[in-house]
Amino acid sequence: MKIFSGIQPTGEIHIGNYLGAIKHWVKLQETQECIFSIVDLHSLTTPYNPEILQKKILELTIAHLAVGINPEKSIFFVQSRVKEHTELCWLLNTVCPVGDLSRMTQYKEKTKQFKKNINAGLLNYPVLQAADILLYKTEIVPIGEDQKQHIELTRTIAKKFNTKFGETFKIPEPQLPKIGAKIMALNDPTKKMSKSMPESCLFLFDEPDKIKKRIMSAITDTDKTIKYDIKNKPGISNLLTIYHLFSNKPIQEIEKEFEGKGYGDFKKELVELLTESLKPFREKRKELLNQEALIQKILNNGAKKAKIVAQATMEDVRKKMGLI
Q1: Residues 133, 84 contacting (CB under 8 angstroms)
Q2: Closest by alpha carbon to 152, among 79, 89, 103, 93?
Q3: How far apart are CA 223 and CA 320, in angstroms?
Q4: Domain-by-domain residue ranges, the chain?
């Protein structure tokens, strides 16, 4: 199976990013044909600092390598280094219904969030995402809950193109984690954990003292029972999800383990679990921080591999659209 997934260089990776996506990437690369990209072109649609963009790309590359992405098993590259992404995006714009774009939930949310920066890129963001996916004849796209609508649009675009110009693209299927697709904010379990609200996050490379501070102050519920009930007990349910995903213990087993104990006891155990689980990531990251030449070599090799696939797809696309 061909797998594609991407992540923006817009800040540090938090445990929600890891549990909802990257953890699954690491597992998938063992058995599937995986292509992972740092999608820097997508990040240009919201306010950013051009002077530190490359620094963020480097940091994100190091983060992925530290948590287990293996460039020997996967194609790992920076989106903007493969020009076929933008070419295919333009061509797909000619078959994408504009009404579908304006209905995208993320577009509506972004225009509210960035009222002084409502650009055409925000509207066309899902078309570039479709190009990212379809360029590699992707069959499976691991996603979080908030990306389902975009993948549906990708499928619509692929079907329209195939109908109009002949069978060209695979129709990709979304793959969501059974649990953990959305990790909620530690300070407000009714909202998703987000980099734009750092106080809501536990970042992947946080030191033990920060882990302890964030978890011990995490919002729980007035009812002190350690029970998974996402509707009535979102706070403790969120922490139970995190515990489950890092320990690989079933939630029912965790509930039984803490039966009769309080939130304080549970949080202390979660702090210990997270401290130990994240320790190898912190150590590997420190090793890689001073190896920029190696990092750039990995990204250049990844781009070369990606271009071979992308160029073959574009030759077929251009031919079918009458451009050759």
Answers
A1: no
A2: 103
A3: 62
A4: 2-180+292-320, 205-286
pLDDT value for 112: 77
Token pair 């260089």 is found at 9
CA distance 7 to 305: 19
Joined together, the tokens standing for residue 278 give: 């994240």
Residues near 207 by beta carbon (within 8 Å), at least 6 away in sequence = 282
**Topology of the domain comprising 2-180+292-320:** Rossmann fold (3.40.50)
This prediction's pTM: 0.89
The dihedral sign for the CA sequence 58, 39, 167, 30: positive
Task: Give the pLDDT band of residue 270 (cuts 50, 70, 90).
Answer: very high
Residues marked as catalytic: 110, 192, 195
The DSSP letter of residue 197 is S
Residue type, 308: I
pLDDT of residue 284: 96
CATH number given to 205-286: 1.10.240.10
